């Protein structure tokens, strides 16, 4: 899941009177919302799915992504959001690249461009740009991710800065913990903790997150 994915949906949900939601992307990926400076390897694809509950609002997302041409990771996602009164469908197009590859003991930087929109209403959606900066620490057992970006929200025609900071803590080859905070200009910051378990390392992962009034359960498949 990506940071701007969550923030644009949260902004829209609040505007519609719904409770805020939280989400975007084997890079950092699930269970983090904050993004990282990494993309899938050339020829590699993955599928991220997760269910989320924020108060009375429920979301279900599925986002396949593949490395195309070696330098770009392209993703096309779909979702629906529902509460007791209505259901809304969304689609998301995303392109991500890395300018400096993250290596053990080093750092990396990338860029994510995305458009998220309601289905049936064309491509006029929430446009976003995010720059993730990642650091490998403590012999690659801790990964630190910093995000800075901007989002243009279609519903309000407003442009806001976005931010995020997250960390992954490797417990062993199959288990890791995450902690993160993220937010949007003029909005309240959000904080959450996560846990990931690799059923098949590098191929199949289950995960979960918990924050204030927000809980998610996820599954990641990777070839």
Describe the structure.
By secondary structure, this protein is mainly β. It has a single domain (3-222), classed as Beta Barrel (Porin), CATH 2.40.160. 6% of the residues lie in helices and 60% in strands. It is built from one helix and twelve strands, in the order H-E-E-E-E-E-E-E-E-E-E-E-E. It has one helix at 3-15, and strands at residues 45-54, 57-68, 72-82, 87-100, 107-118, 126-137, 142-153, 158-170, 175-184, 190-200, 204-211, 214-222. Strands 1-2-3-4-5-6-7-8-9-10-11-12 form a twelve-stranded antiparallel beta barrel. The longest helix is centred in the first third of the chain and has 13 residues, at 3-15. It starts with a helix and ends with a strand.
Q: Order of strands in the sheet with the most strands?
A: 1-2-3-4-5-6-7-8-9-10-11-12
**Helix fraction bin:** under 10%
Main sheet: strands, sense, barrel: 12 strands, antiparallel, barrel
Gap between N and C termini: 18 Å
Q: SSE order, as H and E?
A: HEEEEEEEEEEEE
The domain count comes to 1
Distinct helical segment count: 1
CATH topology: Porin
**What value does the Rg take, in angstroms?**
16 Å
- Which percent band covers the strand fraction? over 45%
Which runs of at least 5 residues are low in confidence (pLDDT < 50)? Answer: 11-27
**Architecture in CATH?**
Beta Barrel
Instruction: Please name the fourth-level CATH homologous superfamily.
Output: monomeric porin ompg
Reading off the top of the CATH hierarchy, the class is best stated as Mainly Beta
Mean pLDDT, all residues: 89
Q: What is the structural class? A: mainly beta
Give the number of DSSP strands. 12
Shape: globular
């Amino acid at each position: 899941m990506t940071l701007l994915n969550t923030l644009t949906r949260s902004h829209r949900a609040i505007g519609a009177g719904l409770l805020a939601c939280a989400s975007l992307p084997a890079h950092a990926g699930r269970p983090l919302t904050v993004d990282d400076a990494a993309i899938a390897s050339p020829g590699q694809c993955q599928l991220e799915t997760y269910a989320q509950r924020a108060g009375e609002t429920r979301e279900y997302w599925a986002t396949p992504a593949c490395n195309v041409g070696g330098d770009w990771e392209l993703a096309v996602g779909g979702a629906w959001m529902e509460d007791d009164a209505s259901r809304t469908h969304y689609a998301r197009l995303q392109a991500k690249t890395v300018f400096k590859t993250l290596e053990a003991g080093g750092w990396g930087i990338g860029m994510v461009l995305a458009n998220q929109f309601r289905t049936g209403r064309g491509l006029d959606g929430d446009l976003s740009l995010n720059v993730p900066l990642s650091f490998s620490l403590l012999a690659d057992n801790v990964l630190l991710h910093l995000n800075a970006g901007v989002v243009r929200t279609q519903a309000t025609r407003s442009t806001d800065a976005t931010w995020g900071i997250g960390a992954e803590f490797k417990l062993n080859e199959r288990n890791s913990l995450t902690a993160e905070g993220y937010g949007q200009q003029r909005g309240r910051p959000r904080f959450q903790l996560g846990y990931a378990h690799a059923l098949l390392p590098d191929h199949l992962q289950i995960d979960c997150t918990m924050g204030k009034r927000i809980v998610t359960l996820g599954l990641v498949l990777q070839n």
